[in-house]
Amino acid sequence: MSSKGNILIVEDEFIVANDLRLMLQKAGYQICGIASSVIQARALIEKHNPDWILLDIILKGDYSGIDLAKELMVKKIPFLYISANTNHRTLEAAKQTQPYGFLVKPFREKDLFVMLDIARYKHQTENVRLQREAAVKADANCLDSIIGTSPRTKDLIEQIKIVAPSDTSVLINGESGTGKELVAQCIHKLSTRSNRPMVVVNCAALPLSLIETELFGHEKGAFTGATQKRTGRFEQADKGTIFLDEIGEMPPDAQVKLLRVLQEKEIERVGGENPVKVDVRVIAATNRQLEKEVAEGRFRLDLYYRLSIFPMELPPLRARKEDIHALAYHFLRKYAEKNGVSITGFSENAMQELMAYDWPGNIRELEHIVERHVLLSTGSSIERIDIPTSMLRDNSPASSGKLKTMEEVEREHIINALKAGNGKVSGTGGAAELLGMPAQTLYSRMKKLGIKQTFKG
């Protein structure tokens, strides 16, 4: 409960209800209303969504407090009985509705607060138990989507299990196509926020002029064309999780505002005068080395520290080749079923080709190649793998005599993809499709690496 809680009093005796209100307000509770009947109580519950309800059994009208309690059980709103009725049959009926406490009138002020404290503790304990049970159920589903049994994959799954139940900020680092969003989804689904949304933001795809209004929203009339109030991504993610993909592409001005959100737990809408409190867990991801970005002045050090409380490094597919077999068959079954074809496996030669390739586009590239071969295959198995020749160039250190930097490798790989796509970036057969990334992200990477769109195959 926020502060001590928002309480609805359902009591048909005005003096008793008013005394309750004064006692509770003095102790720091908020009172959202007093109802003397079930009909009034339903309206106030709908309007105020109280944290707790203090409920008399005998009320005005045709319905009793026990009738309302049955509805509260369904809505999962915790309640306590306060009644002078100690009839055995009535007490047994009340017990069946699973209240968090029962206080007999008349009562002392001290007894009321002791009962409330006990009830709050029982409710919190029960919530923790339910969240753990939900996490166990989600565990079997979402972690099954992380395919592989290699040591690196097992270690990744253990890290997810460790960090998911907390509210700690997570920074996921990995090359394009390694499954950063999938890992973020698993962390969210195994967290206590899983019943709230995970809002995904691709920082590289946001136009520079719209970043602030997209993330934080704007008020009506904040600028030309703002004909109505807009809720930003952080407000949409309130009580849930926000996933900031490609965080390394965020411009400096937006980094400053993001840092303030992380520090103050509040946002300011564009054109707004008052800050808005938000309760959001932040998971960020990047394919860049943010330490290098910090050293070169492109990323704020204080923001980096805020985001990287729990850093996770996703291995490239070439570092977990023992998982290729399981991944390839997973995608084979997925696309065979999707396209209604009877393909059951790979020939030994085809699997050897998959194992021999270094997969610069990682799991996403493997998925696209398997999907393409499922569509092209005319038999019951995939006999050979056709990988674009531009992707097969030897980039090993032995061929050049020295180890290339990540930036050099990335630049060369993008140029190769542009040549393979005949200079085309977006659309079918374009470099973005070949690399398995959004076109806007590729444009951003090309700009940072100084690559012009003039390469032809």
Could you characterize what this model shows?
α13 crosses α15. About 2% of the residues have low confidence. The longest helix is centred in the N-terminal third of the chain and has 34 residues. 31% of the residues are buried. It is elongated, with a radius of gyration of 29 Å. The strands form five sheets. It has a five-stranded parallel sheet, with helices on both faces. It has a five-stranded parallel sheet with strand order 7-10-13-6-14. Strands 8-9 form a two-stranded antiparallel ribbon. β3, α3 and β4 form a beta-alpha-beta unit. It is built from 19 helices and 16 strands. It is an alpha/beta fold and 457 residues long. It has four domains: 120 residues, Response regulator (Rossmann fold, 3-Layer(aba) Sandwich); 168 residues, Rossmann fold (3-Layer(aba) Sandwich); 69 residues, Helicase, Ruva Protein, domain 3 (Orthogonal Bundle), CATH 1.10.8.60; 64 residues, Arc Repressor Mutant, subunit A (Orthogonal Bundle). This is Sigma-54-dependent Fis family transcriptional regulator. It holds the Pfam family AAA_lid_14. One of its GO terms (molecular function) is ATP binding. InterPro entries: AAA+_ATPase (IPR003593), AAA_lid_NorR (IPR058031), CheY-like_superfamily (IPR011006), Homeodomain-like_sf (IPR009057), HTH_Fis (IPR002197), P-loop_NTPase (IPR027417), Sig_transdc_resp-reg_receiver (IPR001789), Sigma_54_int (IPR002078). Keywords: Activator, ATP-binding, DNA-binding, Nucleotide-binding, Phosphoprotein, Transcription, Transcription regulation.
